[in-house]
Amino acid sequence: QVQLVESGGGLVQPGGSLRLSCAASGIISIAAMGWYRQAPGKQRELVATISSGGATRYADSMKGRFTISRDSAKNTVYLQMSSLKPEDTAVYYCNVRIGLITPYDYWGQGIQVTVSS
């Protein structure tokens, strides 16, 4: 019954923009939502998160270029990406965290973002 639907990936030129969306259903009491990414040969890394209270966190390389936001009524998180660089190429994964004492993470299937000329 838990479902994360990701959309918005694709191929863009360096300097371009994309917006990723992730809609969560079947999940109660979401503590935070966010995005992580994994490039070939690299570890999965934080991109950005936003808590239920609206606090945001960004990786240093993304801060100033990416913006995370959410629509609580739709249980949807967005990632607006601008000034994209080839090194941003990765599979981006939606993350939904629930619980406080014993946090649990749900993950999307991942969506490809490719930045290339």
According to DSSP, the number of beta strands is: 11
Radius of gyration, taken over Cα atoms and rounded to an integer in Å:
14 Å
Find the structural class using helix and strand composition: mainly beta
Q: What is the CA-CA span between the terminal residues?
A: 40 Å
Order of helices and strands: EEEEEEEEEEE
Spans of at least 5 consecutive residues with low confidence: none
- What is the share of helical residues? under 10%
Task: Give structural notes.
There is one protein chain. The protein is mainly β and 117 residues long. It has no helices and eleven strands. It is globular, with a radius of gyration of 14 Å. 27% of the residues are buried.
Task: Describe, in short, the structure shown.
The chain is 0% helix and 56% strand. The strands form two sheets. Strands 2, 4, 5, 6, 9, 10 and 11 form a seven-stranded mixed sheet that branches.
List the helices and strands and how they pair.
Elements: E1 3-7, E2 10-12, E3 18-25, E4 30-38, E5 45-51, E6 56-58, E7 66-71, E8 76-81, E9 90-98, E10 104-107, E11 111-115
Parallel strand pairs: 2-11
Antiparallel strand pairs: 1-3, 3-8, 4-5, 4-9, 5-6, 7-8, 9-10, 9-11
Write out key terms for the chains shown.
single chain; 117 residues; mainly beta; 7-stranded mixed β-sheet; 4-stranded antiparallel β-sheet; 11 strands
